[in-house]
Amino acid sequence: MGLIRRIVSLGKLAQPQPSLDPAREIRPDLSSGSLVLRHVDAGSCNGCEIELSACFSPIYDLESFGVSLTASPRHADGLVVTGVVTRNMQKPLMDAYIATPGPKAVVALGDCAINCNGLREGYGVTGAVADHLDVDLEIPGCPPEPAEIVAALRRVSKR
Amino acid sequence: MTEWDYSPTVGINVKRESVTVEPEGLPRAVSQQLEKGARLALASAIDDADQIRLVYAFVSPNPDLRTEISVNLPSNDPVITSLAPLSFPASRFEREFHDLFGVKIANHPMPRRLVRHGHWLPTWYPMRHNAGVAKFSLEDDPGYPFVPVKGTGIYEIPVGPIHAGLIEPGHFRFYAVGETVVKLKIRLWFLHKGLEKLFEGMEPTAGVALSEKISGDSSIGHSLAYVLAVEEALGVTVNPDVALARAMLLELERLYNHVADVGAMANDVGYSVANSHALALREELLRINRGITGNRLLRGAIKIGGISLIGDLKLDQLRNIAESFQELAEIIVGNPMVHERFSHTATLLRADALLLGALGPVARSVGIATDARIAHPFVGLPIEAALEASGDVMARFSLRVKEFQASAKLLGEFGSILSERALPNGTLVAARQDSPRRQGFGLVEGWRGTIANRVELDDSGHLSRVKVVDPSWFNWPALPLAMAETIVPDFPLANKSFNLSYSGNDL
Ligand code: SF4
Question: Domain ranges in chain A?
Fold first, then answer.
């Protein structure tokens, strides 16, 4: 079977997502309808990355809610940070933050990014994201499931 | 359904030996092991207060033999002579001994720092018990002493630690002429958290959740290696059904990761629609994981002495996924552009892979039949190592397709064990005071290759040392070799075809 036939036979895979409650929207100063994020793994186990990438699968189709990832922080509206902040990633994280033009949002994705998730005492760990940057949005879970990530990021993309 | 007797007890056929040698006798003891064909699977330093103990764990298959060679060094002046002339992996473990424990390595051919980053104070050895508070100074980072590559037309491309995509951090420095890479230097350990030290002082049961965070995509692989090591240290044997169920979870982990890699490789040659299809299949697999264990990454299932499951594996659903995956894989390689980009790209030579001690799909795609499920089984299953020979991206792609199908077949035959509700749910053994060994060693064939974990318990039954070795630790040095003569734009593809762990390497 060729690709075209496969696409036709599978049909639309995107799963309907609940409608967005405008009362939960945040950061009204950021543009409405789109949110371009630079992802920074500051000390993750790579578990949060699996679920973040799942958000961009055809099932969750996060891009249809205006959220996309970009390679350069200079093109970004903000950072989505995963993991604890290690000593060795502290400077690269801050560099990426400084390179992102304001106004900008910071999203802490996963329990490690929010509260270190039991790793705070590691000698290579400086703390959670909020110990370094003002965090606008926390998405809890180890890792958070894609539907939770989609719902949370839509509060910032407002779409 | 094939009838198969799986052997009943964890480690029943394992032979263990351990010897302590004088530092002068170490090279001889090590070369004896290597001459016998044993592989250095792990080397661990242990701070015993009055001495620094180095343990080298050699393993060989058939019979499953695990030999530990120990040397004791005075803690005030620990020095050994480098084993670099004998073993490349040993020479890297030595650099780790130096950076984390302050062991001096005499005659090391490459005595540069490995784990330590420039802003750690050079005389602060964090794994020593008396290391005290972390000593770092961001202002004084001298940068890494990259060996400059000089010549007409050679230029340098520094990349990372933060990369363009959704991946883990590391620094790559390419030296290129035109588009062709002359040399690639990889600097890692950006994710170094000090995980091994976090285990120290913990109850063994608490260590399971920590081991799941070593590398999230290998939550089963790492927690299982840890649990096997703890069970050996506690003298616990598990019910054979538990061992079989654990093996099945390991195969589920292989499935969702291999499907993701197959899609990502297609994506890196611009075939993103194929990646979307792969991601859709992965999503189905992650949901199956959730149905069985309550967690999409299969976390929380592995317990010391048991296993914890909440749902069944639907075999017909799995069969459909396997068929759909096969169709997708054929669509991907059937595309002439993909075929062209995959073939003869980033070829790893078999001789290099052998020298580096490469593991997992990276080794099997140059025809090296390494597989802990065969060499060091904790449950006997009818497994044959899938092999490819050409060592290029195409080989690593085709190998994953084969391994996916082999795992799906195994799950088809034995996966119904996951529906067995009477499996023991991790009851930790009481009489740990009289546990015979207080040391244990676990080997597990994760989807990236053989994961090793070595555990020591103190007199009160708490963890006193845990050493983790992800297969990526062995495989990372292979990537620059495969990149020689490859063009810079093919690096993302080459890197994806290896798909090594940063988190599992950096710890
Ligand atoms: S929150 Fe969980 S999944 Fe995410 S990085 Fe931390 S340990 Fe990994």
Answer: 45-157
